[in-house]
Known about the structure:
The complex is a heterodimer of chains A (752) and B (292).
Chain A: H1 23-27, E1 43-49, E2 55-61, H2 63-67, E3 71-76, E4 87-90, E5 93-96, H3 97-104, E6 109-110, E7 116-122, H4 125-132, E8 136-141, H5 148-152, E9 164-167, E10 170-175, E11 178-186, H6 189-194, E12 198-206, E13 218-223, E14 229-233, H7 238-249, E15 256-260, H8 276-286, E16 290-293, H9 296-302, E17 309-317, E18 323-335, H10 342-349, E19 358-366, H11 380-398, H12 402-408, H13 428-437, H14 439-442, E20 450-459, E21 464-472, E22 478-482, H15 490-502, E23 509-513, H16 530-557, E24 564-567, E25 570-573, E26 580-582, H17 583-590, E27 594-602, E28 608-618, E29 625-635, H18 642-662, E30 692-697, H19 719-731, H20 742-748
Parallel strand pairs in A: 1-16, 14-15, 18-19, 22-23, 29-30
Antiparallel strand pairs in A: 1-7, 2-6, 2-8, 3-7, 4-5, 9-10, 11-19, 12-17, 13-14, 13-16, 17-18, 20-28, 21-22, 21-27, 24-25, 25-26, 28-29
Helix pairs in contact in A: 7-8, 10-11, 11-19, 12-13, 15-16, 18-19
Chain B: E1 5-7, H1 12-21, E2 26-29, H2 35-40, E3 48-51, E4 61-64, E5 68-72, H3 77-80, H4 84-89, H5 91-99, H6 103-106, H7 111-117, H8 123-130, E6 134-139, E7 142-147, E8 152-154, E9 157-158, E10 165-171, E11 178-185, E12 196-204, E13 211-219, E14 226-227, H9 229-233, H10 242-255, H11 266-291
Parallel strand pairs in B: 1-3, 2-3
Antiparallel strand pairs in B: 4-5, 5-10, 6-7, 6-10, 8-9, 11-12, 12-13, 13-14
Helix pairs in contact in B: 5-8, 10-11
Bound molecules: flavin-adenine dinucleotide.
Amino acid sequence: MSKKMIEKEKHISVGTRPERMDAKEKVTGHALYGTDINLPGLLHGRVLRSPHAHARIVSIDTSKAEDLPGVFAVVIASDLPEADDRTEKAGESTINYKFLRDNNLASDKVLYVGHAVAALAAKSPDVAQNALELIEVEYEILEPVLDVRHAMSDKTEVLHEQIRTDGPNGSGDTPSNIAQHIRHVKGDLDKGFSDADVIVEREFTTVPVHQSYLESHAATAVWGMDGTLTIYSSTQGAFLARRQVSELLQYPMAKIKVIPTEVGGAFGGKNPTYVEAPAALLARKTGRPVRVVMSREEVILGTGPGSGTAIKVKVGATKLGKITAAQAELCYEAGAYPGSPVHPGAMAMFAAYDIPNGQIDGYDVLVNKPRVAAYRAPGAPQSAFAGEQIIDELAQKIGMDGVEFRMANAASEGTERLDGSLHKSIAIQEILGVIEDHPHYNEPLDGPNQGRGVAIGFWDNWGARSSVEINVNSDGTVNLISGSVDLTGSRTTVAMQAADVLEIPFENVKSSMVDTDSISYTDTSAGSRTTMATGLAAVEAARDVLAKLKAEVADMWSVSLDSVVYSKGVFGTNERKSENITFADLAAKLSGQINGHGNVNVENWAGAGGGTIVDVEVDPETGQVKVLRCTAIQNAGKAIHPGHVEGQMQGGVVQGIGWALYEGYQYDELGRVLNANLLDYKLPTSLDVPSIEAVIIEKPFPSNPYGARGVGETPIISPAPAIANAVQQALGKRIDQLPMTPTTLLDKIGVI
Amino acid sequence: MKTFDYEAPVTIDQTITMMSKTHGQILLLAGGTDLLVQLRSGNKDVDLVIDVKGIPELNQISYDELSGLIIGAAVPCSQIYESQPVLEKFPAIIDAATIIGGKAIQNRASFGGNLCNASPSGDAIGAMMSLGAICNVVGSEGARNIPIEEFCIAPGKNALETGEMLISIQIPSPRPNSGSHYIRFTPRAEMDIAVAGVGASIELDSNLDQILSARIALVAVAPTPLLATEAAESLIGQEPSGPIFEKAANIAKQTIRPITDVRGSASQRKHLIGVLTRRCLDIAVNRAVQVS
Ligand SMILES: Cc1cc2nc3c(=O)[nH]c(=O)nc-3n(C[C@H](O)[C@H](O)[C@H](O)COP(=O)(O)OP(=O)(O)OC[C@H]3O[C@@H](n4cnc5c(N)ncnc54)[C@H](O)[C@@H]3O)c2cc1C
């Protein structure tokens, strides 16, 4: 793999804004999503879900449902083979197959309201619905564990008898709801705090927030006579879905073909599978294709949100504005099974700063709520909400401008983070510089009850494996296929990179996502990796194409391979200046059997920093916060498609505004979700969000041919703390709780 | 959702006959923005759905000095807020018609449906109640009028007898020097449901310094939208001013029976009724001053 960056002059498509290849299909309603899959003889699958937050399953009687005319099959956990108690990395989260099995179909206990207990297939959705009501489940109801702090107490009922805390000093010896305790230590904490002139300490809480992709989960399974299981899935990672189904069914990967449909949003939440394996079981039992589509209520109740948290932070600094020590305790809800994003939460918390002494304790805590899933920069919005408010407060106490204070403590290349890793090239200082100089930061606010807040954030991103294949057609156009599910326009951005390496027009590249039979292994589209890693695979595949074409040219002209050159779409040779042939003419001569392969495993990638400036107006009588103006700043390394980067930044801010002001699960004391619909689970609408200015910084990451970094996740991190800092300025009151709804605000300011 | 029959009669008579002859559960369909949601979620079962959008009397809007404004029960919000007489004379109606749901919902949702659905948080009900609307109802026994404050009897329950239907809502012509307003509080700017709402209409004397009559309606703070009669009476004979509105707002706060639910707490609703009543009265009076 060449380590050299591609020179700026050779960025022809890269850096421009071509139309997204999937745009017209999607906006005109032609694109096929999971729900659109229709096969002859299709049956409709539905899932029976637990009404209890915590209960033992005493018995399940499916006979009445099976007897209902129109019902073809019912499956429960015992229809799945036993699974390995093995944990693997899956995207930015982990998957334990035993727990995944129990999450797909509960075996002995139900652990949250909405937990899948049985699935059935019927001739129509209505019959399926009626049949669900005929399944008789006897439960022994147990005490629900709903509060993260309460769950951590050793007096509280445990969710899993077999779980012991995996801690810094080994494993605990009694059952616990704390699945893991991580600790990062740097320097001398006590000395750090004793060197401080000012210390600020607070506790913050957040509630689970759902990814709220517009498309719900959908899977259609069909078995071939040859034993091939084909699954059409709304997954964000076709190979990841295949691995899960293979493990759950104990069935060989080679015989499972996952066809990813167009995806209506995922944000990390479509890494785990929920309905794929049950659909496959039902399809096998009935011998017919079975489609399972979740309702919105099922999505909210039964699929992973981001963690609710309780976070304690303490930071000290000198009068002159140098941070001397930082300490945090992060308690993250994992939901029903271990695996909260407390690691990345801890990573992101102070990553933008150079802190000499620090300690972070992170807890992965089981509660009777759905197992959390990755959600865009998993764990980071929560820890940044706490950390960036404390930084703001510390600056205020010292009497320093918040941006200046951050600048004085900004991390740079080589800074050791509290988790022990060293920062590669980052651009925190540049980001703070842009904020300081931006008109938004310098123009005065223009009314009462207004406030301006700033926050920054850093995200580590991901690299991993991607595969691309490019086939050259005889007319000089090329077909590019990749194993990456396209969530964000990656078909287009990957093709742009291939076009530039091939030095052909972008329009001559047709780019598609394909199924797991058609290409080599590719990791899930997560961790802001796809444009970067699959783009790198495309660069490699394009280079492979050129190498093969050069060999053909050398052969054709009987010149040495070394003498063949390629520039601006034309092949030549240093041996005879008169010879030349264009890419298209050569392709015609070869009549289409040149292909290039790019299989990469990116182990060297870079994180990305970003920041938010936001103005709000608070109505002190109603507690309503209106976001008046918002500027998002981010280091993209290189914006392959600036329009897509802006889209990611704006989308991240919109979700960040959701976290800040509107979104969150509400529970009653029995653990029932009170707002499992999109009326009461409030996403911001277009009228709640101002036009968002996106400022892209390009500080290249030198190990990527274009200098690109992942951009998808960073933008969601800093909006919530920036809004909280702005609300503090407007109200004179710090809000330590998300979401900052009108009810919360009125309560905090003592009006109600 | 169970299967059901669907009919679309074109006269009131046909509809009344159809209703009296059918056994089982019958529901009328206007815009369907409440009904379809309820049917699909399984909250309501029905054997026959009668679509009333083909009946002329239910789909027209008319105004004259004498009978006032007559809004056919199935007229959607978007036609209401485009109607000239409404724009000129019934600002509270415009306020409600433009905040229900969002643009797409407003193209379907009717005031009649809002009223018959009898939700405690019906915005159109609040606006119409503040303007003293009368509900024109027909059944197999004949026609009758129901004052709007008697129409909703419990959450989701209205005063219609079996076999009766709502034909139109009639709102008296505004008095000289009068103004109205409907205001609600929602966390989101659109596609949301009132945590609390207040409608008010105010009539001033010709010197514009005395309140002659007032009506205040409160929404989402009791099992049904309700009239704050005492609060309105406290304004009569007074010169419009902040302290007077504040006093009325405080009385309004005492008349409500709010609950705590997922959309807000009882104490928040009580507090909001105070804030909204004051703001609503202020705007209604300003409008009265402007029209004179
Ligand atoms: C996304 C969304 C947002 C919404 N936002 C708001 C909002 O902001 N404020 C608000 O108040 N409401 C809101 N609603 C609720 C709904 O839109 C309103 O109540 C609307 O006015 C109902 O009118 P409709 O014509 O759609 O009624 P339908 O759904 O057709 O009917 C409602 C009820 O009235 C009965 N009915 C209809 N016509 C008659 C008749 N002539 N005689 C007797 N019974 C009849 C029906 O059987 C049914 O029970 C919202 C709904 C949705 C889906």
